[in-house]
């Protein structure tokens, strides 16, 4: 297996932009898929204009014309049908590797997680679809489970810290170890996987740049800001009990709360089968340095 030409879809998103940056800094030839109606621009990269409806025959022709070897999907994981069209076109065109939009805070391979968060069950469904295609053509897949987007999480309540308001929402005492990955770290992981196509084929891989507790994070936040944070103690059980019914009714804010809480209490990758930091040659990052950079301190 030899991967040279890599295509990315979703290149202006929270994750897509740093993944694109890492790919552009690599030795691969990079293309971005851009829908016909999109206003996005991508300087210094080959742009492949694709139909808004992701028509499979047209995508197949475009993948063939551009000799695409690998496709990285960084659109929302909830877009199941769009992902299936991309995957079908990749299979038809002889693409060798697909990354589904499995990136994120929680483990889509965990049955309890899929019960708590239907979004994760959708991600599992896409991975199951890829598994069903194994042995048909050249197509292989890699699912990359990243845990909370760690640095980005300080700009919102994903990590349960209100940095501007100097408030810390401490879940279940704050001593639960959880995994997290900075956006640049995730981008680098994608590159490392593509550089190791044989070792990473048809695998579910877990990574983290940080393995911390909320209390450890809080101590560093107070150090680098020079101010104490107000501690607000929360029960994960109570938070989920309140948020999940609203989430199931379509409340996006409630879904984000469930993701935030579950990504702390059920996202420790250190002992997961498939933990791939060593395989990919990735070293964990310094907590204080990451936090200083994330909050501009």
Describe the structure.
With 297 residues, this protein is of the alpha/beta class. It has a single domain (5-214, 241-295), classed as NAD(P)-binding Rossmann-like Domain (Rossmann fold), CATH 3.40.50.720. 40% of the residues lie in helices and 19% in strands. The chain is built from eleven helices and 13 strands. It has helices at 16-24, 56-65, 80-93, 111-116, 118-132, 183-195, 214-225, 236-248, 252-265, 277-280, 287-295, and strands at residues 5-9, 29-35, 46-50, 70-73, 97-99, 140-145, 148-149, 161-162, 167-171, 178-181, 203-206, 210-212, 230-234. The strands form three sheets. Strands 3-2-1-4-5-6-11 form a seven-stranded parallel beta sheet, sandwiched between helices. Helix 8 packs antiparallel against helix 9. The longest helix is centred in the middle third of the chain and has 15 residues, at 118-132. It is globular and about 55 Å long. InterPro entries: NAD(P)-bd_dom_sf, NmrA-like, NmrA/Isoflavone_reductase-like, PCBER-like. This is NAD(P)-binding protein. Keywords: NADP, Oxidoreductase. It comes from Periconia macrospinosa. GO terms for molecular function: oxidoreductase activity.
């Amino acid at each position: 297996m030899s991967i040279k030409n890599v295509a990315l879809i979703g290149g202006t998103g929270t994750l897509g932009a740093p993944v694109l940056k890492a790919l552009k800094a690599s030795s691969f030839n990079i293309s971005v898929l851009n829908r016909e109606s999109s206003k996005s621009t991508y300087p210094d990269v080959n742009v492949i204009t694709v139909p808004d409806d992701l028509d499979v025959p047209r995508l197949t022709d475009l993948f063939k014309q551009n000799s695409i070897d690998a496709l990285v999907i960084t659109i929302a994981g909830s877009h199941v049908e769009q992902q299936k069209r991309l995957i079908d076109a990749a299979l038809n065109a002889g693409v060798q590797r697909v990354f589904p939009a499995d990136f994120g805070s929680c483990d889509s391979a965990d049955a309890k997680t899929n019960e708590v968060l239907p979004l994760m069950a959708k991600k599992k469904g896409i991975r199951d679809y890829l598994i069903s295609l194994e042995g048909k053509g050249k197509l292989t897949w890699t699912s990359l489970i990243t845990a909370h987007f760690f640095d980005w999480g300080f700009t919102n309540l994903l990590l349960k810290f209100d940095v501007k308001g100097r408030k810390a929402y401490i879940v279940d005492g704050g001593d639960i170890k959880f995994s997290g990955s900075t956006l640049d770290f995730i981008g680098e992981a994608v590159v490392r996987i593509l550089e190791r196509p044989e070792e990473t084929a048809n695998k579910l891989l877990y990574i983290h740049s940080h393995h911390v507790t909320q209390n450890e994070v809080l101590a560093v936040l107070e150090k680098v800001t020079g101010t104490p944070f107000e501690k607000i103690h929360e029960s994960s059980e109570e938070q989920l009990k309140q948020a999940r019914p609203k989430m199931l009714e379509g409340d996006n804010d409630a879904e984000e709360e469930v993701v935030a809480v579950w990504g702390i209490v059920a996202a420790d990758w250190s002992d997961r089968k498939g933990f791939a930091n060593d395989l990919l040659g990735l070293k964990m990052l310094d907590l204080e340095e990451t936090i200083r950079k994330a909050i501009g301190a």
